[in-house]
Inverse folding.
């Protein structure tokens, strides 16, 4: 399989909790309603990974703002790091 940018895609199974799966479906519907675009759940997951990848890249460049994602021990730790980064990005709200 190839993505829209020509890079090869690999099939990967992800286990989600029901509320996570329902939220992805809701976001797909909201995007289509607001923009008319059809965005797949896979595209949303890849976008989330791209955001985490950028945060991980920025951590060494801004150590006073971001902790390396590799220092996390659980998924819940990743959530905290990402939420803190988002809060910092929007002005500490």
């Amino acid at each position: 399989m190839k993505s829209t940018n020509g890079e090869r895609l690999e099939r990967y199974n992800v286990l989600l909790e029901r509320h996570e799966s329902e939220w992805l479906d809701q976001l797909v519907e909201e995007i289509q309603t607001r923009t008319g675009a059809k965005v797949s759940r896979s595209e949303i997951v890849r976008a989330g990974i791209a955001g985490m990848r950028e945060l991980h890249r920025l951590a060494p460049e801004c150590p006073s703002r971001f902790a390396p994602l590799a220092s996390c021990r659980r998924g819940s730790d990743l959530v905290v790091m990402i939420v803190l980064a988002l809060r910092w990005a929007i002005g500490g709200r």
Q: What stands out?
A: The mean pLDDT is 88. Helices lie at 18-35, 41-58, 75-89. Residues 18-89 form one domain.
